[in-house]
Each structure stands twice: as C-alpha cells, then as structure tokens.
Specification:
2 domains, 5 helices, about 130 residues, mainly alpha
Length: about 130
C-alpha cells in the first residue's frame, strides 16, 4: 500500500466521522482549525519568559539554561584558578625545601655552582 492510498483511506474515515458530529461541535472544530492556521502564519512572539506551570515565573527555559551555563563556567574558572594557586604554592614549598637543604648542608655554596660538580652529580645518579 502506498502513501496516497493510505491518505485516501484516512480521509474517508475522517469524513465519515465528521458526518456524525453535531453542528455545534463541527462549528467549534472549524473555528479552532481557523485559529490554529492563523497562528501558524504568524511568527512566534514571546513577551514574557515563564516556565510551564510555574505561574509566570521570571525564569524561562532559556533563561534557566543560561544561568546553569554561567554557573558551570564560573565553577570551571574557579577550579582552574584554585589549581593554579595550589601549583604555585607547591612550587614555592619545593624551592623553600631545596634552599633549606642547601643552606643546612656542610657543602659550600660554591660547590653547587661549579659545573664539574653538577656533571659529577648527574653522572653519579643511579
């Protein structure tokens, strides 16, 4: 069965059903159809954003989604800033520990600056 035959059968059934309707019901259906077609031709205009069933809330679906996106972006940026701060603190602590180890050792600072000593340290590492 092709599409045209199916459409013809559906149309026939609908026409038979319309014949049994009361005139008042038929008039209301025609008026509703005309109103729907009129609205179909108009562009969609939204004057106030509201959630369905929320009683005219100031947040619409798009507004709520925007808020969620911005909260997510702020959390991401906050996390990145916190990670960067933590990393900087860790580097500072490592430098402090290294400085403390150098200053507390018995080896003179000039030995650490000697290139031969640095080469010996690299060569002697396991």
């Amino acid at each position: 069965m092709n599409e045209r035959e199916t459409a013809n059968k559906i149309t026939t059934y609908l026409d038979r059903g319309v014949a049994d309707l009361k005139s008042g019901t038929l008039y209301r259906l025609q008026a509703a159809r005309a109103a729907a077609l009129a609205r179909l031709g108009e562009g969609e205009r939204v004057t106030q954003l509201a959630l369905a069933g929320a009683g005219g809330s100031m947040w619409g679906r798009r507004g709520l989604a925007d808020v969620r996106i911005w909260v997510g972006i702020l959390l991401l940026v906050g996390g990145l800033v916190t990670f960067q701060y933590w990393q900087t603190v860790q580097q500072t602590r490592d430098i402090e520990e290294t400085d403390a180890a150098i200053l507390s050792s018995e080896l003179p600072i000039e030995a650490y600056l000697d290139r031969g000593f640095q080469a010996w340290l690299k060569h002697s590492e396991p």
